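Submission checklist for the structure archive. All mandatory fields must be present; incomplete records are returned to the submitter.

[x] Identifier: Spore germination protein
[x] Organism: Anaerostipes butyraticus
[x] Residue count: 503
[x] Sequence attached
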Amino acid sequence: MDRFHGRDHKLIGKISENLQENIIYVREVLKDCSDLIQKEFHIGKEKETRVYLVYMDGLVNVDMIQESIVKPLLLEETKKEKANFDWGIIESADRKWISEMEDAVTGVLSGNTVLFIDGMDQAVTISTRFFPNRGVQTADQEAAMIGPKDSFNETLRINTALVRRRIRDTRLKVVQKQVGTRSRTDYALMYIEDLAPEAVVRQIQDEIDEICVDGVFDSGMLEQFLEKKYRTLFPMYQLTQRPDKTASGLMEGRVAVIVDNSPMAMLLPVTANVFFQASDDYYNRWETATFARILRYLSAFLAVGLPGFYVAIAGFHPEILPTPFLLALVSAREGVPFPVVVEVILMELAFELLREAGIRLPGQLGGTIGVVGGLIVGQAAVEAHLVSTIVVIVVALTAIASFSIPNEIFTGAFRLLKFFLIFMCAVWGLYGFFLGFLAVFLHLFQLESYGVPYMYPTTAKGDGKVWAFQDYVMRAPFCRMKLRPEFTRKGARRRQKEDENGR
């Protein structure tokens, strides 16, 4: 009986009334799996009915199986006909009948327990999942001074529960499916029915369904499979580990994709300005939040353009500097054998090496390497006359500016763009500086995410433009933020009641 074939090893066939055939089939499909637990026993008053229980060790709650399934079956009188089968003896609310072998084997590999009964062409699958997890911990990548501290972990159901806890609305929908022909990774598509545009939800679902790959293990992998414009440095999806940020995105009409085994949720559509927004912007006073955002936008400009600007000024246009500063620059570069551009690139590459080393090393040791390594390398390079002190200051300011941006993936684009600006300035000076920024902005303005311009609300039109800028560089008081952004379905943009003036 060969019911298991095909290039992608797709399971075929229905469950047989002959229990022995089902046992042979399961053992053949899952052979050499030492973590597969199988139990055969008889139930009923006269012990006349054979049953076959199968589950995967390490993915289930063994105590629940013993107390809620095996023990009641052995103690109670049962009949093998489905119509007369006593559901009450199985002490689990999450159970269902299945007739396909594919559903049975997939259920076992997903942490469920499957019960085959002799003489029945269907089986019962009972939810007994108990995955190992590290619990709900503090967000380490998106730390906030005020507001919630919890973060997602690698368990899908815990992550959806953290979002559901914040939005107690029946219109919050959770569509759970699988992706990956071999990994069969669970993922959940979350959206609020009357806020998220139906066309966007359907497009996202269709794009995920079209993915044909053997395995997807993280939200980052799914993001790269979904990207249509992969020839861009800027992320087209927002990854976050914070449930409150995910819930806020859903309330704006966005869609969240949560992948099992990943501590990050993916939010879409996305615009450039969402990467400058931190969670505590909305838990702090609007004046403080606005000031912090202005600093972040300035930091983005410094992280991309400061090294190139220094190369352009020092290499091509020193005459625009005040005389005291020019003399200080010449004095600092005295004895340095390299041109300015080589000097800057050497220090930037040295800092990138230190940055990668600090990330890969264990926590406390990584921080020590970053601080001590930066001090030692910088001081030694200056004393050896390989670089000037001004270059060390420029590189340090660039690094500090990049760290102030709250999204690490978005910062990765700036890390590469600064080398592009350095090259442009090394060739054309200040002309290259402005041309480089012009090329970056032209690229940004032609990007869009599921119909939403990437540079929204800069490109907003009509009446919505006034409201859009209330949560851009400036964060207006909540009492004035009466409309949701462009992500929301048309006709559902108002989130606060109108005031006496009809606004």
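[x] Structure attached
Curator remark: The first strand starts at residue 4 and ends at 5. The chain is about 40% helix and 15% strand.
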